[in-house]
UniProtKB/TrEMBL annotation:
<dbReference type="InterPro" id="IPR001307">
    <property type="entry name" value="Thiosulphate_STrfase_CS"/>
</dbReference>
<dbReference type="GO" id="GO:0032259">
    <property type="term" value="P:methylation"/>
</dbReference>
<dbReference type="Pfam" id="PF03848">
    <property type="entry name" value="TehB"/>
</dbReference>
<dbReference type="InterPro" id="IPR036873">
    <property type="entry name" value="Rhodanese-like_dom_sf"/>
</dbReference>
<dbReference type="InterPro" id="IPR029063">
    <property type="entry name" value="SAM-dependent_MTases_sf"/>
</dbReference>
<protein>
    <submittedName>
        <fullName>Tellurite resistance methyltransferase TehB</fullName>
    </submittedName>
</protein>
<keyword id="KW-0489">Methyltransferase</keyword>
<dbReference type="GO" id="GO:0008168">
    <property type="term" value="F:methyltransferase activity"/>
</dbReference>
<feature type="domain" description="Rhodanese">
    <location>
        <begin position="3"/>
        <end position="31"/>
    </location>
</feature>
<dbReference type="GO" id="GO:0004792">
    <property type="term" value="F:thiosulfate-cyanide sulfurtransferase activity"/>
</dbReference>
<dbReference type="Pfam" id="PF00581">
    <property type="entry name" value="Rhodanese"/>
</dbReference>
<dbReference type="InterPro" id="IPR001763">
    <property type="entry name" value="Rhodanese-like_dom"/>
</dbReference>
<keyword id="KW-0808">Transferase</keyword>
<dbReference type="InterPro" id="IPR015985">
    <property type="entry name" value="TehB-like_dom"/>
</dbReference>
Length: 276
């Protein structure tokens, strides 16, 4: 992850050039001729140090400026050739997953009876799949569920770029409740991840149909968020202490509030189903 005060080194040259030599800490991003993966860039308040082919520099800077990124330094391919560089694929990433994954991953670890399989997580409302990729990196088998086909296409490209296996599933959990219940019964997931998505009837489904010892991890907006921006619909806003009350008969492992820079609060909630 990137410190907000230091520029992110973003290398937008063709991937073969990046593999042949890049600055230490540089992140490769296929800006000019790749798919729409803007979700893999950092927050817009992080300045960028751009590594780019000389003939593509102006276009790249204009495109980043259009997306409200501030390019504070440019190093061309020819200038890089004179510097000490790293080679091969880098493991640096410019994007963040939700704070449950970035700061509380130990609470999400699950044990299962089979030693031959990794624990399974259902990432509900996965969007473009940053959390799905991180979950796979943590050692989960991941079924990533969303009702937007385009988002799942971006997820598959990201998973390929990060060399992880994620199974995408096009499904509207809000309007396909029976299918969601059937999936949970069939797959017996060890973890439900639900980030920035809320449909209250699903909480009751988790309580009833998840197997004992499974966990839910929920990171979504609290009612105070409406004072600072969206969402404003109370259907999409948790009440304070709502999750703790709903899962009072589970073991609550984490119940905190995460506040965004713009003031909007979100839940940081992890609970485990225990034997009655």
């Amino acid at each position: 992850m990137q410190d907000i005060d230091s520029p992110l080194i973003l290398d937008v040259r063709p991937h073969n050039h990046y593999l042949s030599g890049h600055l230490p800490g540089a992140v490769h991003f296929n800006l000019l001729d790749g798919p729409d993966l803007w979700h893999e860039l950092p927050p817009k308040n992080i300045p960028l140090h751009l590594c780019v082919l000389k003939e593509q520099a102006e276009t790249a800077i204009q495109l980043l400026n259009q997306h409200r990124y501030d390019v504070v330094k440019v190093t061309t391919h020819e200038e890089l050739a004179k510097l000490e560089l790293n080679t091969g694929a880098g493991s640096n990433r410019s994007w963040r997953g939700n704070p449950l994954l970035e700061h509380h991953a130990d609470l999400l670890k699950c044990t299962i009876d089979s030693e031959l399989e990794k624990p399974l997580v259902l990432d509900i409302g996965c969007g473009s799949g940053r959390d799905s990729v991180l979950l796979a990196q943590l050692g989960f088998r991941v079924i990533a569920i969303d009702n937007q086909a385009k988002a799942l296409e971006r997820l598959q490209i990201s998973a390929q770029n990060w060399n992880v296996a994620v199974t995408p599933k096009l499904m509207d959990c809000k309007n396909q409740m029976d299918d969601t219940i059937e999936l949970i019964i069939q797959q017996q997931p060890a973890l439900i991840m639900q980030s920035r998505f809320l449909h209250r009837p699903l909480l009751d489904v988790y309580k009833e149909y998840l197997p004992v010892n499974s966990k839910v991890a929920i990171h979504t907006f609290l009612e105070g968020a409406a004072d600072f921006g969206s969402p404003k619909n109370p259907d999409f806003l948790l009440k304070n202490n709502e999750l703790a009350e709903r899962f009072a008969d589970w073991s609550v492992l984490l119940d905190q509030v995460h506040t965004l820079d713009d003031g909007r609060p979100l839940s940081l909630f992890v609970a485990q189903k225990v034997t009655l």
